[in-house]
Amino acid sequence: MEVKVLQNLQYPTWVDLDKFQRKPTGLVRFSRRIREDKGVQVFISAHMQPNITSNRYKSVAPEVSCTFKSFPASVVETGGFHAPLDEALILKNKSQEIEPYLEGRSIYLVGMMGCGKTTVGKVLSGVLGYSFFDCDTLIEQDVNGTTVADIFKLYGEGFFRDKETDVLRKLSIMHRLVVSTGGGAVIRPINWKYMHKDISVFLDVPLEALAKRIAAVGTNSRPLLHYESGDAYTKAFKRLSTLWEERSGAYENANARVSLENIAAKLGHRDVSALTPATIAIEALEQIEQSLKEEGEMPF
Questions:
Q1: Is residue 37 over pLDDT 60?
Q2: N vs C: which end of the chain shows fewer Cβ within 10 Å?
Q3: Containing H/E element for 198?
Q4: Contact between 130 and 219 (Cβ < 8 Å)
Q5: Spatial separation of the C-alpha atoms in residues 65 and 86, rounded to whole Å
């Protein structure tokens, strides 16, 4: 499910709201017919109201853009995901432990391109009862559906970064969100100002694994990879190495770090590709919990 919320922007409602039921967690449940349609897109109108007591804004009925896609059966069953029962129970229990201490604060996922921010973000949003947002998707829709790759080509990276900052600014005045940021969102200090109002989590994936993932799906949608020569893996690895040198220090600003290498070692896996999104989400919740404890916002 891809979710879009933009403050003060109006979009048409494309679907009959009678087909939806509101769950207590705030998630949207679809009818059988809609669930079976693989290409359904949904927009639900949103309105922002001021929260008088906190001088912030809250979402009453967020505007939602939903796209169903097929996901591996190894992912937890939240918003279309499925996972083994033990992982689902661990996720449920851990989310219930920390959710009261989050106090509605949003979670921003940062990390290199291809690290799994969107996939893991959807798992986290499901177990926490939060709404999910993808910054790249919001930017694309704000530029009349233009893809990120075409935005870079037509308007340049500076234009894209300005849009990215504006999206983060708008999201930062909302509550109970899980946000997947772009890989380069960390390079602007102003973006950290917005994200540090809430909680940020760095998904740390080895460059070799990232290059394999990106090469497997192609580099056409990754505008920053178009400047290297060679096969898909070599091209991806070279550019990722350069980007890592530029951004690694910025990722350290995150409140919590999720190391896939550490998770794999702990579970006895040689390759991080063996880790399921649910397993990574569990580690993210544990690292968030540790961060809250270190900040004195959650008891040890």
A1: no
A2: C
A3: none
A4: no
A5: 31
Q: Tens of pLDDT along 226-256? A: 555 668 888 889 999 999 999 999 999 999 9
Sheet of 107-110: strand order equals 131-134, 177-180, 107-110, 199-204, 256-259
Q: What's the distance, CA 100 to chain centroid? A: 21
- With a CB cutoff of 8 Å and minimum separation 6, the contacts of 112 are 183, 205, 207, 210, 240, 243, 244, 247
Q: Please give the Cα distance from 14 to 94 (Å, whole number).
A: 36
pLDDT of residue 38: 41
pLDDT for 240 equals 93
- The helix or strand, by DSSP H or E, that contains position 171, with its residue range, turns out to be helix 157-171
**From the CA atom positions of the chain, what is the Rg in Å?**
19
pLDDT of residue 172 exceeding 80 = yes
Residue 224 confidence (pLDDT): 52
Structure tokens belonging to residue 211? 């290059």
Give the other-Cβ count within 10 Å of 100's Cβ: 9
Maximum distance among all Cα pairs of the chain, rounded to whole angstroms = 57
Residue 270, both tokens: 């040689």
pTM: 0.73
Interaxial angle between packed helices 135-142 and 148-155, expressed in degrees from 0 to 180 and rounded to the nearest 10: 60
The strand pairing partners of 162, in sequence order, are none
What residues pair up with 28 in beta bridges, in sequence order? 22
